Amino acid sequence: xxxxxxxxxxxxxxxxxxxxxxxxxxxxxxxxxLAEPTGRRKALLIGINQYEPAAIxxxxxxxxxxxxxxxxxxxxxxxxSRLGFQAADVVTLTDRAAGRAQWQAAxxxxxxxxxxxxxxxxxxxxxxxxxxxxxxxxxxxxSHLAGGTREAAPSDPIAPLRDWSEITIQDWLRxxxxxxxxxxxxxxxxxxxxxxxxxxxxxPVLTPGALDPEELAWQQQLRRARSGQSSAASGWWLRAxxxxxxxxxxxxxxxxxxxxxxxxxxxxxxxxxASTLWFDLAQTAxxxxxxxxxxQPIAQRLGTGAIRExxxxxxxxxxxxxxxxxxxxxxxxxxxxxxxxDSVNRTVTVSLAGLAPVALAxxxxxxxxxxxxxxxxxATASAGGLRITGRNGWRAIGQPVxxxxxxxxxxxxxxxxxxxxxxxxxxxxxxxELQVALDPNFERxxxxxxxxxxxxxxxxxxxxxxxxxxxxxFARAARPTANPDPNGDEAKTAYGLWRPAQTLWPSTxxxxxxxxxxxxxxxxxxxxxxxxxxxxxxxxxxxxxWPVRITLATLETPDRPLLQWSTLPNAGGAIxxxxxxxxxxxxxxxxxxxxxxxxxxxxxxxxxxxxxSLGRATLIQDLGQDTEPGxxxxxxxxxxxxxxxxxPSRGLGSLLVWLSRDPLxxxxxxxxxxxxGEGDRLWPLAQPLALARQLxxxxxxxxxxxxxxxxxxxxxxxxxxxxxxxxxxxLPFRLI
Length: 736
What we know:
Layout: H1 5-10, H2 21-26, E1 41-47, H3 53-56, H4 68-82, E2 90-94, H5 100-111, E3 119-125, E4 128-130, E5 136-138, E6 164-165, H6 166-175, E7 180-186, E8 199-200, H7 213-226, E9 236-239, E10 248-251, E11 256-258, H8 259-269, H9 277-290, E12 298-301, E13 336-342, E14 347-351, H10 357-361, E15 368-371, E16 385-392, E17 395-401, E18 420-429, E19 434-438, H11 444-455, E20 460-462, E21 472-480, E22 491-498, H12 516-522, H13 524-538, E23 548-554, E24 563-566, E25 584-586, E26 592-598, E27 604-611, E28 617-622, E29 632-634, E30 638-643, E31 651-660, H14 665-670, E32 680-684, H15 688-706, E33 718-722, E34 726-735
Helix pairs in contact: 4-8, 6-7, 8-9, 11-12, 13-15
């Protein structure tokens, strides 16, 4: 029997939290999941790449995934190096060791000895499935479909499944004697579409059969175990996507990972102490949405009582719960951590899971890291820096460098496993290019023509999407003909651009019958905009330690912020939600308002750009100031507020905000002439790529004016940027 959309969304175990005002207030309790507990913190991480076709699609040649073990490794490093879990308390099950029986044994072991005040994290990356009644399934390594093996004969279509029900794992978390529990699933439930360019983590069809009676009995046992517990449980269930949407894994900088896992792990590595958890989840959803797929992360509260029962009278006091209260320390953003040291070769192995994607891709060009926390009290030890010399995925090899003596033994430096790292000097290639992948269904002549056409563009390169992150796909797109031939096709081939997760970029499809080389030339301005956006994002940085706050609201409701970045201690201030776990939502009739606050003693220069859904950049300028057009001067202990009409282009956009201690002179000189007068306006940038490169030149000049990288002079082939000299953020929003 076919399910209605309402039934389809509602049969996954419990109602999904909608993340309205009450839900987001209750979300502060997620912060307690990983808080400093009175007891232990334990985690069970499960990842499966190697599946047999009989478990997923019996007629498929291969159903292997690529990113699930990477998901486990990323979570393991995050928990032990960023969130203070002990390595012995983080258990992993991978591939063949993650069969159904091993799951249950590990669940029982994890639950043993738990007490109130302990914290538990459970995570799974692999395939998901869906029963006809809407029950979500998590597929262990030794699963099989009814009729797919000798153990399950075709004549027995309702043979018990070896899958785990999502409901069972949720019941297990609810049954634990602690309220600090978190479940994370990076798997899809919706049947995957026909073969696509990207991997879906879900079975291609509804799963036949029924749950194992023993599992149903265990569910009842788990529910009885929690029957006497308080309904104020604070546990949460995070899922990569809604049950009717896909969950994807995508190539990154030399490795594959779940789109949701990579975005969430990156966000948690880079969270500021004053960041609310709702903001971190919203940023994660924005990162996923930026890939262009239909994936939409969701969160579900595991408590059994109504949310409002646990909020209290004054809801405004609770919504400001910040991430610094549940980290092991109230530390600032981290690029990664030290994994091991080698005194013989004088090298350090590091994880760079918190490094921005563009910076990670070029890390081996000479990126220099420094300790994210003060060095040990040994007066003879100098922290110095750690220069990256090689990279494999998000892990890298570095060598210590110092101003005084680069040949000192590695023992003289503070590098030790678990040492958190942050960027000091970012190295970016001057020839950074837009990476485009070609339609896998292109015929040979199309592939040859496309490669030749892109070779003529100096700023675009064709890459293999199997092992490198891509910025866009160049592919066929069917365009209906004005007068279809009744005896022929109703649509002819056209060409356009697609986002990495295989959704069409708006307004990029040409006319039917357009020559391929002509299509590449037509898309030249779009390529410039996308590369400029990539360069803008290459400058995102939180390395400077200035006390600042940036708040996005609307002119209509300025007291209800949509997003906020703050480095201020005890920032306070309620950051109100605006809907589901998604970017801040603006309507075409609203007027965005951005407030910039400088609580320090150093004057700062601010620049604000808006990017629309097509990557086009617009300068946001307050013409009422007595400053150079294009930049805003923030005097010490002051604030400035900018307001402007909402972007005309619907869809996902963002604000880019830069703060620097010196003015951006080259970029300023390249801006179009702006008329001065009352009010404020939007100024479209006709040459975004040139301006993006001028910004990088300015940041390098500011960097070398104030410091010099240890060990060697800046290379003429790269930008050498001191991360202490500027800050830059991206605040995503969706315009409806």
